[in-house]
Amino acid sequence: MPAVFLNDRSLLSVGGADAQSFLQNLITTDIVSLAPGEARPGALLTPQGKILFDFMVWQDGDCYTIETDAGQRDGLLKRLTMYRLRAAVTLAPLDDSGVTVCWGEDGETGGARDSRFTKAGVLLSRRAGRHGDDSPSLYHALRIRHGVVTSGSDFALQDAFPHDVLMDLNDGLSFKKGCYVGQEVVSRMQHRGTARRRVVTVSAATALPQAGTEITAAGKPVGTLGSVEGGSGLAIVRIDRAGAAMAENTPLMAGETPVFLALPQWSGLAFPTSTDEASA
């Protein structure tokens, strides 16, 4: 069973009598339906519906644990504190440094199972602290294979909508609960079906160029390469433009490297093929 320690992750604790309602009315995740032992992705959005902070959240006894990028933790804590007002909520950073992810037969042992990987048929758990020493490249290769993105590596904060990173499909975005910051915008995108930017897996016969390389079709931009491990990677692309290019057998290129794009199988998404949509 691989066990990978991620030293770039940090934790916050949210407790108190109003912890559930506080998070339910603020973040994208449906906290009320969060099952014991389950970790779900989530985000705190800008009023314009873009991702201000992204994280994983799970229940830990009477509290909730939020796992986020170490560079985001202090900013997220400050923003949550700003929204707390008079709610009976305690907010505190946890002393545990980093997070260990385990997957395989014992993926649920001693941690919270990650719903993003569950969707892809992989049993993966997240646990505070260091409990393994396998190479982080194993985890990043697994992420890439199943279309699981992370901010910084795959998208910039305040630049992506939740739909862009598949939160509408991986239990990170609720359309059934009440209002939260940015909810009106993402609900409109959902009901109108206007999400065109999506996560894709990228493959090439040779090593892919570095993250940030533009993906093009006939010289026109389609998206941007994110995480890369050898000849495999992730990108967020305009699937209407990519679909039109593939329908016309137009080569897709990451810099000078020919690439093949695929939507994560678990997502149930397909590339549109209408050239009219591609020009929208």
Automatic annotation (TrEMBL):
NAD among keywords: no
Record Gene3D superfamilies: Probable tRNA modification gtpase trme, domain 1
Keywords: Transit peptide
Pfam families from the UniProt entry: Beta-barrel_CAF17_C
One GO BP annotation of this record: iron-sulfur cluster assembly
Keyword Transferase annotated: no
Superkingdom of origin: Bacteria
Protein name: CAF17 C-terminal domain-containing protein
Native organism taxonomy: Bacteria, Pseudomonadati, Pseudomonadota, Alphaproteobacteria, Hyphomicrobiales
Domain CAF17 C-terminal: 196-267
